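worker-3 :: picked peptidoglycan glycosyltransferase
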Amino acid sequence: MNKRLYRQSWLWLSLLAMSLLATGIIRGTVDHWIETTELPSILRDVSTEVRDRDGALLRVYTVEDGRWRMAVTPDAVDPTYVDMLIAYEDKRFYDHNGVDPVAILRSFGQALWHGKLVSGGSTLTMQVARLLENSGTGRLSGKLRQIRVALALERQLTKTQILQLYLEHAPFGGNLEGARAASYAWFAKDPKRLTPAEAALLVALPQAPEARRPDTSQDTSQKARERVLARAEEAGVISQSDMRTALTEPLPKIRRAFPSIAPHLADRAIRDDPILKRHDLTLLKSLQVSTEALAQRAVRDLPEGVSIAIVVADHTSGEILTSVGSADYSAAGARQGYVDMTQAYRSPGSTLKPLIYGMAFDRGLAHPQTLIADKPVSFGSYAPQNFDGVFRGELTVTDALRRSLNIPVVLLLDALGPAHFIEALRMSGVATKLPGDKPGLAIGLGGIGITPEGLTQLFAMIARHGGARPLHWRKDNSSEGSAKVLSRSAAWQVGDILSGLAPPRGFQSRRLAYKTGTSYGHRDAWAVGFDGLHVATVWIGRPDGTPVPGAFGGDLAAPVLFEVFQRIKPEQDDLPPPPPETLILSTAQLPKPLRRFVGRSGYFETTPNAPKLTFPPDGATLVLEDNILTVKLRDGVGPFTWLANGTPVKTGERRRETQINGLSDGYSKLSVVDANGQSASVTVWID
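worker-3 :: tokens ->
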């Protein structure tokens, strides 16, 4: 007998003696030894998981030491895998008390017969003891310690609990620990449903996790799997037919990446409750994956640094179904993919106009068929302009909203009062950021900060017949409606007008109530809409707020919005019919006060030749490139003198579009004086 075998023989004889002591031959002498065992901690940290509404895994995080160790219970893995594991590693697992004298004796006999150690005598409980203490197995002292811990574990834990510890801590190569982490890494799926071949590989890996990794050692991995399958067939765990099929199944060649779906919202959930190990969200995984792919495709051909945000919700329940914070979470540089743009405050452009019209309907200021003037108008120094600079004269409120004209909606906002509009946003559950302390008329045209999620909240209120219900993304955080912002009829009228808009080019007509918007300087392109069940918002722009020349909500965001609704379901949910109290009349049939709108304090210009600033609008928030501001005016007689905060910055200027530089952050008052001494001014916020 060689020296090494001699040592091994004495090792196993000693282990056999100790196991016999533990099984009762000399029980009284070892009870105290077992009872006084200092056990290692069994409370190991496990990976935090984020799941969708149906329990599907969206994202998983490593534990502090960078290992993937996912929580799992025996009933959460394939029964065939558990049966294979016990048949191969410890067939008397449910009968012994931590050590198996029969297995130790067999190992000793095989070692004598073959002249080398053929099989180990460790039970699953002993392996758990070794894993918890991260101890070796080659020395007698190490084996004795494992036996002692195993015997103590068996007295304090159930077999199911011990099996769970093995399933969570067994090594599977690299930084993989536990059957669930291994199943996701090698098979890209949960271990609840494994093929016999997959189960056999997971049984074989922990014995030599690095040597048997299928991505680096296919031959070794294949042979190890074959041995497990043969033992499983011999034990009756699988049939001979199943074994033949399993032997032909290819091994995985690569280690798969763990799911990283909805990464921004997953991070948000962790920040919201960093202690919780499982976060169940309202998201729908299939729709989230599809929408993330759409977001990537939508910005693929856009200029560098352009990002996107998409939010989809069920407006009847308030559940957020999709939340895409950027096109690529890992994108570095100008795209800043790590920034969750669903939470970024941006200028909403024209997308707030529907709320103003709905409030006007409720307060008896207008009706969809009321005539309203689209002509030059000023409110003190503020003279709003339409986006294209064209005036269309008198037209119905319906046409004004569908064409997204600026002057009619500012007339209505002036009659309502900006403070009342801000209060309606607050009642809708929408958080906002104002450029100053006091809201001005420019807020109706986008002179306010709002997030894509907030805009979704607003349109969900309109879709819910004017009743606000906070959107939520945690599955257990459902909420009821909290405020009535618009009447049923006013909300329906707004939706009916918006559903009459033509769809983007290339899309079939569908009754989708939607609105587009473009912020000052082409910094933000928006589209938001709803049908009978869902509401969605699309934002496209640069995270740093710099312009995207030529970007319009109707061209960029609206097609993406329509694609989102196609991905929600092929057939949309119809918008509701009008409530019985809705007044559906032509202009001529309306009560006389409703036939034409007359503004409260806006007055049509009496000095048509006076200069008027067309850009920037009064109250706008501006982000400047190279500290240069482009200003535009119409009318007036040149040459013009430009002043910034009362100080002349350009004189003798004959062009109606010029550039001013040197403005400091904060409020600035810009003025222009023409050759006849007539002037115009606006106040803006430089960010």
